[in-house]
Write a structure and sequence with these properties.
By secondary structure, the protein is α+β, with helices and mostly antiparallel strands. The protein is about 35% helix and about 15% strand. The chain is globular, with a radius of gyration of 30 Å.
Length: about 700
């Protein structure tokens, strides 16, 4: 039987417990019954009108001491303005927790509000009012996928302390310094995202700072300097950097820049790391995130939060995120049992690139790479790049010149489509003399393809500029296999081949494809549209929802940037040829995988060009990367794409649709005007594409 002291201690604990507020709908009813506006209530509680709105719609909760004052006010109003049909309250203290005394309207409001869910092993659920960071989602919002991260992967912090998350969540952030912000994020915010693979790691929370929030935390509004934007950072003697170091936190080697990571060493199994992104420091590149930096904080949170849910929580540029996604979906290690000790230790995860960087074969490297400089390699290099080709004007027929239009077809994420079921090397390259060609072995082959005949009205499938090869050169497996497909014999002179292989990019392709298709569907572009409907919707899809249009642009940039990052070149004026640059320390510095993706994409493009010529007699005017330009009798691809008698698109040629690898209308120009300018070196594909970056290797 409990003693008197134990009972009194339990009662005291209840008395000291923070008060429970009535449901949001009841808070609004009481205020309106008292004839008080939200602005006046905000003034009395020394807060903002927006905060009061958030309390009354369930998006956030106040914290002490404002919580206690608000509770006292609501109790007083509840005693004076009871809901119709409710029993009169005996006292203000008694009415708050008494469920049986709550009015019917309050019960309805409580039923509409999300209820706590018991999760096995998760421990007791804390009341909503216990933390400054707690928040209630609207009734229509999706439930949290992981109870450890109830408020999603990230928030956008504004200067008034409001932190905007997904699904309308708004948290109250009391931090006045960067150190306080980091500690609040890890202890109270409920931010983060679960790992994408069972052997991987959870995503660290991301805090995006507006210009006002940055200034409030002691950071400069702009980060200026003569260096490239990606290398800008605060000096080590800046007060904020000193505060971070003094509080025993660390910065990565990149320092405190537009994307700053602040962390401590892992203790046990808990990571202590927070990612910051500063909007006014150009953290979001306009090319990858069009218009996002100028959006309101809630809209920025919607864009980045949707991207985080469908792709990955951003950790830098879209190129960085693309590379991080590869590792998140193919973690380098997994837990294995040590037979000697019986303990679980990290071991190699099959199908991954492992934990150690791997030097490429000399022809796969770049000219400044140590394996080239140190060995004195002069044997040539792979030149697997995307198409940049324009048909010679002399090869245009009279009939083509009389067609009034030039129409551009842009393949949806062509390089993502090429990554599907792509077998790449997972082990180090081995050198072979005169190997027999095998299309199933990934690697680099020295072979002469100058004897392969291709219609001069089409680009050569073996070179980026579309010209015919003049002698032996290094090619990736897919390029050589295509020569065999065309019916020609190939006899490699040398080869750098890999024995261990796998479809490393498959999960990366699947996740990005789903993200791309789902985001297009949000913009009204779905698979069930007819070709005419598809073109009509694509014409206006960017205006349908600018936020989702920005997510779509970011997904496309993630594909190209992630592939380009596989062969990141040295950066900075201090670099000297032959030195190892930081990117070479990553297991994901794999130029051979980048070459495999581009080779397959270029071969896929040429195969469609051949099929189009066979079905329609049409030949392209130009090809730039994933865009091909055709002469046309009308201003729509429906005027020249091949269709069967049933009205269905012919397989093998270009087809319209939202799926990666299918085409969409990119632009229309006057054919006669285009031909006239081509004689002056005009590139219609580049004009229509607007100089689209191809597999950007930057950050």
């Amino acid at each position: 039987m409990a003693s008197e002291e134990e009972l009194f201690a339990s009662v005291d604990a209840l008395l000291n417990e923070e008060p429970h507020l009535p449901p949001p709908a009841e808070r609004a009813r009481l205020r309106e019954a008292a004839g008080i506006t939200q602005a006046r209530l905000a003034t009395a509680l020394k807060t903002t009108t927006q905060s009061v709105k958030n309390w009354e719609n369930g998006r956030s909760e106040p914290k002490s001491p404002r919580l206690d004052a608000y509770q006292r006010l609501l109790n007083g109003w509840a005693a004076k303005y009871p809901a119709p049909g409710a029993a009169p309250a005996v006292s203000a203290v008694a009415t708050a927790p008494a469920a049986s005394a709550e009015p019917a309207a309050s019960e309805a409001a409580r039923a509409d509000a999300p209820q706590p869910v018991d999760v096995p092993g998760a421990g007791p659920t804390r009341p909503a009012a216990r933390s400054a960071a707690t928040s209630r989602r609207p009734a229509s919002a999706r439930p949290a996928a992981d109870p450890r991260f109830p408020h999603g992967p990230l928030v956008v912090l504004d200067g008034d302390g409001c932190a905007y998350g997904l699904d309308g969540i708004v948290l109250d952030c009391p931090a006045a310094t960067v150190v306080e912000l980091v500690e609040w994020t890890l202890r109270e915010s409920g931010l983060g995202a679960p790992r994408l693979h069972r052997n991987g790691k959870d995503s660290d929370p991301l805090i995006v700072l507006t210009a006002a929030a940055a200034v409030k935390l002691g950071l400069p509004e702009r980060l200026e300097g003569h260096e490239q934007r990606r290398t800008l950072r605060l000096p080590e003697d800046h007060p904020v950097v000193k505060q971070v170091v003094k509080a025993k936190w660390r910065l990565t080697q990149r320092g405190f820049g537009p994307w700053a990571r602040i962390y401590r060493k892992v203790q046990g199994h808990e990571r202590q790391c927070v990612q910051l992104a500063i909007l006014s420091w150009d953290a979001l590149d306009e090319r990858s995130w069009p218009g996002v930096a100028q959006m309101e904080p809630a809209d920025v949170a919607r864009v980045l939060g949707t991207y985080a849910q469908r792709v990955i929580t951003p950790r830098g540029s879209t190129a960085v995120s693309g590379l991080e996604l590869m590792t998140a979906l193919r973690p380098p290690t997994r837990a294995v049992r040590d037979e000697a000790s019986g303990n679980w230790v990290p071991g190699h995860n099959p199908g991954s690139l492992g934990t150690e960087p791997m030097d490429p074969a000399p022809p796969e490297a770049t000219p400044e790479h140590p394996v080239v400089v140190d060995s004195g390699w002069t044997g040539g290099f792979l030149n697997e790049e995307a198409y940049q080709w324009v048909r010679d004007v002399s090869l245009l027929s009279d009939e083509e010149c009389t067609l009034p239009y030039a129409v551009g077809l842009d393949l949806n994420t062509a390089f993502l489509a090429a990554a599907a079921r792509l077998v790449v090397g997972l082990s180090a390259p081995d050198h072979f003399r005169a190997p027999a060609f095998n299309p199933k072995i990934p690697g680099s082959w020295l072979v002469d393809l100058s004897h392969v005949e291709v219609d001069p009205r089409l680009p050569s499938p073996f070179t980026p500029d579309g010209t015919r090869p003049t002698g032996p050169a290094w090619y990736q497996t897919h390029t050589v296999a295509y020569a065999q497909e065309l019916g020609y014999n190939v006899a490699p002179l040398e080869g750098y081949l890999r024995r261990e292989t796998g479809a490393y990019l498959d999960p990366w392709h699947d996740r990005l494809k789903n993200a791309y298709v789902d985001t297009l569907a949000d913009l009204g572009v779905t698979k069930d549209l007819s070709d005419a409907e598809f073109l009509a919707v694509m014409e206006r899809h960017k205006d349908t929802d600018p936020a989702m249009a920005a997510v779509l642009a970011a997904i496309k940039a993630t594909v190209k940037g992630g592939i380009g990052k596989l062969r990141e070149r040295p950066q900075g004026r201090k670099y000297k040829e032959g030195e190892r640059w930081p990117a070479l320390q990553r297991p994901t510095w794999r130029p051979d995988i980048r070459a495999a993706v581009i080779s397959k994409a270029r071969v896929n493009m040429h195969r469609k060009l051949r099929n189009m010529a066979a079905m329609t007699g049409l030949y392209p005017l130009a090809v730039l990367s994933d865009c091909v330009v055709y002469p046309s009798p009308g201003d729509s691809p429906l005027d020249f794409l091949p269709y069967a008698a049933s009205g269905k698109p012919q397989p093998g040629a270009f087809r319209l649709g939202p799926t990666p690898g299918l085409a969409k209308l990119e632009g229309v120009q006057s054919m006669l005007w285009a031909v006239d300018l081509m004689e002056q070196g005009y590139n219609p594909a580049r004009h229509i594409k607007g100089g689209d970056a191809v597999l950007d290797e930057g950050e």
